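@channel sequence for tomorrow's demo:
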Amino acid sequence: MDAIALSEVAVRIAREAAELARTVRDEAVTDGVDTKSTETDVVTIGDRAVERLVRERLAELRPGESVLGEEEGGDGALDGLRWVVDPIDGTVNYLYGFPFYAVSLAAQLDGRSVAGAVVEPVSGRVWSAAAGHGAFLDGQPLRVSGADRLALALVGTGFAYDVRRRTAQARVVGELLGQARDIRRAGAASLDLCAVAAGWLDAYYEVGLNRWDWAAGALIAEEAGATLRLPEKGADDGLGDEILVCATPGVAEGLTGALRAAGAGEV
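structure tokens (generated this afternoon):
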């Protein structure tokens, strides 16, 4: 398994997909918007077109390898090599024209990310990583911040579409606001994880993410030096099965303790 080669494929395809997302946006948000789990959980024809492109290009460049995507699903088995795609992470931002959304594509081996790319259609920024070889933004190496106190940490998060869960998540944020420098919510998990990698955030956490939300971004953050806690069934650390926590090492312990005390794993 050549992680660098897989990363190069991820970057190549994600670049193409990001350009498609950008060029079809006007049509996608005026003539092709639908909903999924709730009326605020949107999907556009842009999401579907981008995922189709990714699948087509993977079939050409990596024939026979399985794909898991947000819009078209895929094999749930973790064994072997599988590509994980979020065609437009931050679809609500895409809908509104808020320029914080991305195409995310990762290669996972036995359920663990080994290569990934996150490409921003509006800015053109390309985030990438290969396991054991570091993380990069437009070819420049990334490193997490040196923050060492939660009280001075800028923390990112996100919220679910379900109203009851959102309300519980707001309670947790209320607890954290008195313990951190500040909280940010920008609406795209992959880019929040990349922001930790770049030191633009000191930490990020969220409950209820899907694998395609974090597969590429989590690897980028980890390769930049972040401490990573992925969602895990049967986890016994008091944070539940569904929370992802990503932080610069000096903040990780303080944040996980604060989240545990706030009941973040129970929302």
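heads up for whoever presents: Helices lie at 3-23, 25-31, 45-61, 91-96, 163-177, 189-198, 211-223, 249-261.
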